[in-house]
Amino acid sequence: MTRQQLIEQIFKKKSFLCVGLDVDLNKVPEHILKEEDPIFAFNKQIIDATAPYCVAYKPNLAFYEAYGVKGLVSFEKTINYLHDNYPEQFIIADAKRGDIGNTSKMYAKTFFGEYKVDALTVAPYMGEDSVVPFLDYEADKTTWVILLALTSNKGSFDFQQTTDTEGQRLFETVIKKSQQWGTTENLMYVVGATRGEMFKDIRKVAPEHFLLVPGVGAQGGSLQDVCQYGMTKDCGLLVNSSRGIIFADNTENFAAVAAQKAKELQVQMEAELGKL
Fold it and tell me: Which region holds residue 270: left if phi is over 0, alpha if psi is between -120 and 50, else beta?
């Protein structure tokens, strides 16, 4: 999906919601566990219920790999279901890959060639030659790297917010340097929502790039703060909610409740887009 196609979907649906498909079988409704493939059965109902209110889905690979081969089969079935039934949805594989060049090429082939997702989260710690293979991968459609920039976990202070001798923080260095490798057409950044005012600093170094923003909902991030400091004329945001939507209810009514939670966020997002 190209940048322009993504923007068009956002303004068509009046939403920049990304639904995180982080399936924990300890949290799904009990009746789902009776299904032959409970992970896929759960995802299918969540997707069908929430698709009208979001523009993206983000399965986190850890929640599939934890179940071995069966989990990876569920992941692939989920991706194929989205391709076949909701081709307008932007699919993000949240895998946080990043390794030496040859290994990164194989990771790129896995996600862009085999699964044909639109975007992949990538860790930048090893530098240019670990990131560029993802950006350079030749696919039959536009693919995106979503680079970890400023996360909302406590440990982000260990490295990301340390400063150099000129007072520049490491996450700022990462964002500035990475713009030599990719463009606003194929490079996004992960920025946690729990520090809304930090988006002012992010926008100083990445004024036009799209940002993937986790942390709204269960993690306590404020959508209004994110939009106030991070929104651009093209929106420039994909705001993710996982647990707050998919685990809002654990009865047989879970999909309808998930739809309601997604709709509530969509309504808030419509109001924010209306301010542009």
Answer: alpha
One-letter identity of residue 88:
E
Residue in the block written with tokens 């536009």: 142
Catalytic: which of 13, 27, 58, 96?
Answer: 96
Separation CA 119–CA 94 (nearest Å): 8
Q: Which residue has 């690979």 as its token pair?
A: 61
Q: Please list the helix, strand and coil fractions of the chain in percent, rounded to the nearest 5, in that order.
A: 45, 15, 35
| 29, amino acid identity | P
Beta strands in the chain, from DSSP E residues, in sequence order: 17-21, 56-59, 90-97, 119-122, 144-150, 187-191, 211-213, 237-241
Pull the structure tokens for residue 101.
Answer: 């060049």
**CB–CB of 56/79 below 8 Å?**
no
- Interstrand relation of 144-150 and 56-59 (parallel, antiparallel or unpaired): unpaired
Residues near 123 by beta carbon (within 8 Å), at least 6 away in sequence:
96, 97, 98, 148
For the stretch 129-160, pLDDT in tens is 999 999 999 999 999 999 999 887 777 777 77
CB atoms near residue 267 (< 10 Å): 12
* pLDDT over threshold 90, residue 108: yes
Task: Return the bridge partners of 79, or none.
Answer: none
Give the C-alpha separation, 152 to 149, whole Å: 10
Polymer length of the chain: 276
96 is annotated as an active-site residue: yes
